[in-house]
Specification:
five-stranded mixed beta sheet, alpha/beta, Lyase, Ornithine Decarboxylase, Chain A, domain 1, 21 strands, about 400 residues, binds pyridoxal-5'-phosphate
């Protein structure tokens, strides 16, 4: 057992990710400057920071943004720990996702904001009340945002009779501080014609007015609605805070968003992808014309080939749907992935890219010379979206921050 402590957290022979600090800082500047400098900028660090690495992205972004949004309360606690260990001023942190009654108590104590979007919160608030009484009311109040479902059909109170639905919150005035009201768009990135989003905005404004009246607070409530796409293409949706995810990592939410952004901003900001995924070959060998490669014999060599084996597969988040479809970059050339993507291996044609058996580095996502392969390319080849490609890159892989 003792030996385990001396083993590095990451195997040396595995694929790894390089996360560009300059790219992320550049993308943040786009939202700060070209979008709207008066609106608070929130970054979304859910899903292991869209696969880019929570702690790596936290380190890069902490000094540049106003608010951090996460889904999982555990991530929020990690952020508070990081701030404490590094003597940093606490940023506002909001947990968007589901939390337990005990986690709500911990959030109150660590000044982490939560989102209330259903009546299950009643028992969590009773639990919070009990534990705060035990602690002598030391940690009151818990800061909370009310989530309105304006048409996504996911979390949040539906708009009908909203004032009645949130009535229970008025009974916990000392215990919770209602900070804001939020909602989330359904299809802004799927279309260039935003009529559904306008309906959602109208429902939101309507619900917000009812909530303001019901709560009759002495201070203004914050409103937040816009993710990456709406922050760009729906200026009316920016309100007081933007919650920007994918674009800060340098990826466009969709082609439609790109097209609409050019129209709305009369300019197309240049987002810079922050992630490069690389892998060192495990071995290189010759195979004869007519031999098969990989499970299921789905690839047969049409000539003698030099092939490289890479220790990476669908376990690491390289989709199996890329079998016989994708390319990797080696020595500035595009090289075919041959046969099926396996759990821990892919095999690549390096006949043109190298002249001997010396190990080579493949770029799976990123640039190499004039060539590049984007998360969008992998998404197209495997019938999904760039969000899923990057988020599914295994959290067991090493992520290094580069300039
Ligand atoms: C994921 C998410 C966002 C960010 O979305 P992007 O399209 O990545 O910018 C914002 N708000 C909520 C509630 C989310 O779940």
């Amino acid at each position: 057992m003792g030996d385990l402590a001396s083993i590095s957290e990451f195997p040396e022979q595995a694929s790894w990710l390089e996360i560009s600090q300059a790219a992320i800082v550049h993308n943040i500047a786009i939202y700060r400057n070209s979008v709207d400098s008066n609106v608070l900028l929130g970054c979304v660090l859910k899903g292991n920071a869209y696969g880019h690495g929570l702690m790596q992205c936290l380190e890069i972004m902490h000094g540049y943004i106003d608010i951090i949004f996460v889904i999982n309360p555990i991530d929020a606690f990690k952020i508070r720990k990081y701030e404490k260990e590094n003597d940093l001023t606490q940023k506002r942190v909001v947990v968007l996702g589901a939390i337990s009654a005990d986690e709500a108590v911990r959030c109150a104590r660590k000044v982490i904001e939560v989102v209330i979007g259903d009546e299950n919160w009643l028992h969590k608030l009773h639990n919070l009340k009990r534990s705060e009484e035990d602690a002598g009311n030391a940690y009151r109040p818990l800061k909370a945002h009310i989530h309105i479902d304006t048409g996504l059909g996911r979390e949040g109170f539906t708009v009908d009779n909203i004032a009645e639905k949130i009535d229970f919150l008025t009974k916990f005035k000392d215990l919770i501080h209602i900070q804001g009201v939020m909602s989330h768009f359904s299809n802004t990135e799927d279309v260039t014609e935003q009529s559904y989003a306008y309906e959602q905005l109208a429902a939101f404004d309507n619900a917000f007015a009812q909530i303001e009246k019901k709560l009759a607070l002495a201070y203004p409530l914050e409103r937040h609605f816009a993710q990456s796409a709406a922050s760009l293409v729906l200026p009316n949706a920016r309100y007081e805070i933007m919650r920007v995810g994918i674009a800060l990592y340098g990826l466009w939410p969709s082609i439609e968003t790109k097209l609409s952004t050019r129209v709305v901003l009369q300019d197309l900001p240049k987002l810079k992808p922050a992630l490069t995924w690389k892998c060192l070959s495990q071995s290189i060998k010759h195979i004869r014309e007519g031999s098969y490669i990989g499970y299921g014999c789905t690839f047969r060599a049409d000539r003698d080939l030099r092939v490289a084996l890479f220790p990476l597969g669908y376990y690491d988040g390289y989709p199996r749907l890329l079998s016989n479809k994708s390319y990797v970059l080696i020595n500035e050339m595009r090289c075919r992935v041959l046969g099926r993507v396996m759990m821990n291996h892919i095999i690549v044609d390096v006949t043109e890219a190298t002249s001997d058996e010396t190990s080579v580095v493949a770029t799976l996502i990123g640039s190499n010379g004039k060539e590049s392969i984007s998360a969008e390319n992998l998404a197209d080849w495997s019938q999904t979206i760039n969000y899923e490609i990057v988020t599914r890159i295994g959290s067991h892989l090493k992520r290094v921050v580069v300039d």
